[in-house]
Every structure is written in structure tokens, then in C-alpha cells.
Write a structure and sequence with these properties.
With 298 residues, the chain is α/β, with parallel strands linked by helices. It has a single domain, classed as Alpha-Beta Barrel (TIM Barrel). Helix content is 45%, strand content 12%. The chain is built from twelve helices and eight strands. The chain has an eight-stranded parallel beta barrel, surrounded by six helices. Helix 2 links the parallel strand 2 and strand 3.
Length: 298
């Protein structure tokens, strides 16, 4: 039951900002309603797409509290808690108010560039004290370190509260090794929108998606059809969104998805430094897509 909560589509929520940088909670509420009505299976707060690295501790808590209140138990909530200071994370998780939170997503330590032994002991320390299930998050393009298949599997077999991995290495061979040797219920979750069709076809259970901020229903149907082995429908939806998925990452995430959401009227196109808005050609490409998109579900 614990694991099945996270089958399907999780959406990595963006954080809307007002023009002068404060959190725009009205737009955040609009976004929450948009993705829940679109059928997402769970929500991820304070992931990479949320610009959590630029939020103060008080803002992060306020965002999580707001999401919990507005979701109101309609779907599960995963909260991102990661960093490169293991002891600090241990203390954060020890003192975490878990009410309304279903799991923790924890990215590999960045900047320090630990080896596999260091990564293993980092996650062991978190698993030993966490009151909630843990989902590993491997995204070497951002952290400069890859959590190998061997280390992932060692953690998966030794700690029952490590229930899955958001795999964003882009390495399908690594994905296949984990799927081949993992415990039965351990979740393989795509961390790359464009590879979701392939990862689900290989045996993955879903995605934590950026695109689902804009197109939650399409992405939910993409994964649902993939889990049912309806390859024709899965391919149809993937192909319909392929250009969008490419465009929103062209000038970085979450700049691209915020551009799209601004065109849709869901939020203003504001980011916090060091992130800035996408370049004009990219914005125009995203706007043209949004304006012209004809969903294959209609």
C-alpha cells in the first residue's frame, strides 16, 4: 500500500512568485487545483522545479504548509529534503512535522562529489532515522555525482523504508540493471519526462514530472496507458508533447515550465536569481506550442 501511493504521475510543483520576489500563494493554489483536476496521482513539494534552493527556511515551511492545507488529503504529498551536509539533514528529518506528508524525496549530495561509499552511508544515516518512506533522487546533471545501480540496489535491499528512486541519469542501462535486481516493490520512477515512456515500458511505475504542471491530464494518461501496455496510446501522447518537453528545458528548469504556465494564465513568469526568464526565441517557441496544442485526448 505504501508503495502503490506513488504509482503513476507525481508533479514537481513550481513555486510562483510576485514581481518583486515574494511567494505568490494565490497562484500556487491555482496550480494545485489545476494539477489535481488534471488527475495527477501525487504532488512533490520543494523539488528542483520549486526553486527550493532560493527559498528561505521560513518560506519552505510556508510553502509546504500551504500545499498540505490546499491538497487536503486529496492526493499524497512528497516533500524534497536533500543537501550535502548529512548531519544537518539528519537533524532536519528528526524534527520534521510529518502531518500531511507521505514520503521524503532526497537528492544525492551535490558539490562535495562523494564516492559510492559516501553516498551509501549518507542514505543509510537518513534511513536509520526517517519516520517516513524515502525516495532516492539521482540527477547527476545537477549534482555532479551518479548514484550507481549497485549502490541503489544495496540501499534498496537493506532498508525497507527506502521505497524507490527518481532516476534522472538518462542512462537506460542503469535503469535496466536496477529493475532487474531490485526488491519486488521497490519503485523505479522516471525523473526525465522525455524518457518516461521508455522507463515505464521497461518496468518503471511512473514519473515525477515537470511537464505535468502544464499538462497533467495528458501526462497522467501517458503513464496510465504505459502501465497498461497500451503502447499505441502512450506513443501518441508522448509524440504530441515531445517538442514541448524539449522546449521547456532548452533554457533550464523551471524557467521553461514557468514560461508555459504564464502563457496559460496560471502564474506570472517570475523567477529568483540566479535563475532568469527564458530567452525570447525559447519563449516564443513555448508560446507557439501552448497556443497551437491539440491534445490527443480530445
Amino acid at each position: 500500500m505504501m508503495h502503490s501511493k506513488f504509482h503513476g504521475v507525481g508533479v514537481a510543483l513550481t513555486t510562483p512568485f510576485h514581481k518583486y520576489g515574494t511567494v505568490d500563494f494565490t497562484s500556487l493554489g491555482n496550480l494545485i487545483e489545476h494539477v489535481i483536476k488534471g488527475g495527477v496521482d501525487y504532488i512533490v513539494a520543494l523539488g528542483t522545479t520549486s526553486e527550493a534552493a532560493t527559498l528561505t527556511p521560513d518560506e519552505r515551511q510556508a510553502v509546504v504548509d500551504f500545499i498540505i492545507e490546499n491538497v487536503n488529503k486529496r492526493v499524497p504529498i512528497v516533500v524534497g529534503i536533500g543537501g550535502n551536509n548529512t548531519q544537518e539533514l539528519v537533524e532536519t528529518i528528526k524534527h520534521l512535522d510529518t502531518e500531511g506528508i507521505d514520503a521524503i524525496l532526497s537528492v544525492t549530495p551535490y558539490y562535495n562529489k562523494p564516492n559510492q561509499k559516501g553516498l551509501y552511508y549518507h542514505y543509510k544515516a537518513l534511513a536509520n532515522i526517517s519516520p517516513l518512506p524515502l525516495i532516492l533522487y539521482n540527477v547527476p546533471g545537477r549534482t555532479s555525482v551518479n548514484l550507481s545501480a549497485e549502490t541503489t540496489l544495496k540501499l534498496a535491499h537493506e532498508f525497507s523504508n527506502i521505497i524507490g528512486i527518481k532516476e534522472a541519469s538518462g542512462d537506460l542501462v542503469q535503469v535496466m540493471k536496477i529493475l532487474r535486481d531490485k526488491p519486488k516493490d521497490f519503485l523505479m520512477i522516471s525523473g526525465d519526462d522525455a524518457l518516461t515512456e521508455s522507463i515505464v515500458a521497461l518496468g518503471g511505475k511512473g514519473v515525477i514530472s515537470v511537464t505535468a504542471n502544464a499538462y497533467p491530464n495528458e501526462f497522467q494518461q501517458l503513464v496510465k496507458s504505459g502501465l497498461k501496455k497500451d503502447t499505441e496510446k502512450t506513443r501518441l501522447i508522448t509524440n504530441s508533447l515531445l517538442e514541448f518537453m524539449e522546449a521547456i528545458f532548452e533554457d533550464g528548469n523551471p524557467a521553461g515550465i514557468k514560461a508555459a504556465l504564464s502563457v496559460m494564465g496560471i502564474m506570472k513568469n517570475n523567477l529568483r536569481l540566479p535563475l532568469v526568464k527564458v530567452n525570447v526565441p525559447t519563449f516564443n517557441r513555448i508560446k507557439t506550442f501552448v497556443d497551437d496544442y491539440k491534445s490527443p485526448l480530445r
